[in-house]
Amino acid sequence: MSSDRAEGTPARASDGGPGGGHDQLATCPRAGGRRSADPLAAELADIVGPHHVLTDPELVASHQVDWTGRWRGRARLVVRPGSTDEVARVVIACGRAGAPIVPQGGNTGLVGGAVPRARAVVLSTRRLDALDPVDPIAGQVRAGAGAVLGRVQAAAREAGYDFGVDLASRDGATVGGMVATNAGGIHVLRYGAMRANVVGLEFVKADGSVVSRMAGLVKDNSGYDLAGLLVGSEGTLGVVTSVQLRLVPRCTERVVAAIPFAHLGEVVAVCGELRRRITDLLALEVVDARGMALVSEAAGLGILFDRPEPPPWTLLVESGSPTTSTEDLATLLADVVDSEDALVAVDPARRDALWAYRERLTESIARAGIAHKLDVTLPFHALARFETELRRRIGAAGSHLDPVLFGHLGDGNLHVNVLGADPDDDAVDELVLTLVADHGGSISAEHGIGVAKRRFLTLTRSAADIASMAGIKEAFDPDHLLNPDVLLP
Ligand code: 2HG
Ligand code: ZN
Predict the structure, then answer these.
(1) Cα(128)–Cα(87) distance, integer angstroms
(2) What atom in ligand 1 is closest to the CA of residue 362?
(3) In this predicted model, what pLDDT tens digit does every residue of 429-440 receive, in sequence order?
(4) What pTM, to 2 d.p., does this model score?
(5) Which residues line ligand 1 (CB under 6 A)?
(6) Which one of 2, 90, 137, 226 has the minimum C-beta count within 10 Å?
(7) Which domains does the chain have, with CATH numbers?
(8) In the predicted model, is pLDDT for residue 91 greater than 80?
(9) Ligand with minimal distance to 19 CA
(10) In this structure, are residues 144 and 241 in contact, taking their beta carbons and an 8 Å threshold?
(11) Phi-psi region for residue 182, left (φ > 0), alpha (ψ -120 to 50) or beta?
(12) Distance (Å) from CA 373 to ligand 1 centroid
């Protein structure tokens, strides 16, 4: 079956996205500024100002393709509201014009969820980037949907806190986009994914009304958890405008270790032991041999372990604490891991050097081609069997297919990337996702369904489940105005 990728050259790491990040607002001196023949553009310009309605194909271009280059579309225009009130008026105007809206944050998503299709209006949240001072008593901060993760982290750290969700694309990903996908990242095993870190949320509904639950109350059982529902809804239920975030204590003491393994089953067993014995665990990440070879070369990092080939698997472990000393953290880690080959880093520069092998992987893969990105979770007991069968089936499907496996093993989350497959052919997607379903897993761990996995949702969600979700969509957005081409089949 063919995907919805259109013509054009693929995006590259320098375009932004994971590990990169770009700021369209700062780099578009010719943004908007002229009247367009489109009556909707004129109406929106009256709401947000002419500079914030983009119709010039050159300025709209980067909003029409996702970071991977696999998902492309066509936008009618891009509108950049600067307040919740402007968002509401934009939504009402688009609704009246029957123009579908695709909300877009930093455009660092990997499943085409923020790519406009059928000439939709792109509603960029980038100007909604207010960041309030941290509330030191509550340990919370209020951020506009367009605030970039790195800024939230910096503000939290300055106040002696940290934000629990961290990802390699921290310089490009926005809080609103992370809410839309229920982003996970490297610290989920300690702090949970985005939903666990959102204590309040404001969003604009398809009819232009505003729902605001921003009091930051830790306990509030008055009715349905609408904030929780909006997290992970991929822009289909409302446009998120502002978020109240829970902060966590800052781990000033940290240790990182890289450990080689021959089999995934052994890594899974060690991860179980680490989880059981170390309460200060922050991250358990894995990279396979192909991934290590790619990142060593493409990112110029050199060989990590002193051996001719990378090991079949490399496990990266991080422990962190605001109080337990780095030495004590390192001693406990060494006790549990008990490997002569482990590389341990305690100072910031060496810790970052180890993390680079994991964090620069996505950009290194992108340099090698347009990968099919299959972000999946498996039950822990099924991970090793899944890997063996996956490699066997991919091998049988053709030697042109080049799989790279890595991910957040502490969450049972593997990022199966497959290079060498035609971007327009989703046969390999079907192969991988069917196998995931057969092993009791989920076809989306943290990237969402988007357009990439829409037709595969039935693999892991029953008819009753999908009907319930469709009913919720109907209640929030009966005219299918908001991101109508993603998520639900
Ligand atoms: C990561 O964990 C991101 O680095 C991207 O979720 C994963 O490139 C990918 O497939
Ligand atoms: Zn990830």
Answers:
(1) 10
(2) 8
(3) 999 999 999 999
(4) 0.93
(5) 18, 168, 362, 373, 375, 415, 417
(6) 137
(7) 13-124 (3.30.43.10), 140-249 (3.30.465.10), 253-355 (3.30.70.2190), 369-461 (3.30.70.2740)
(8) yes
(9) 1
(10) yes
(11) left
(12) 8
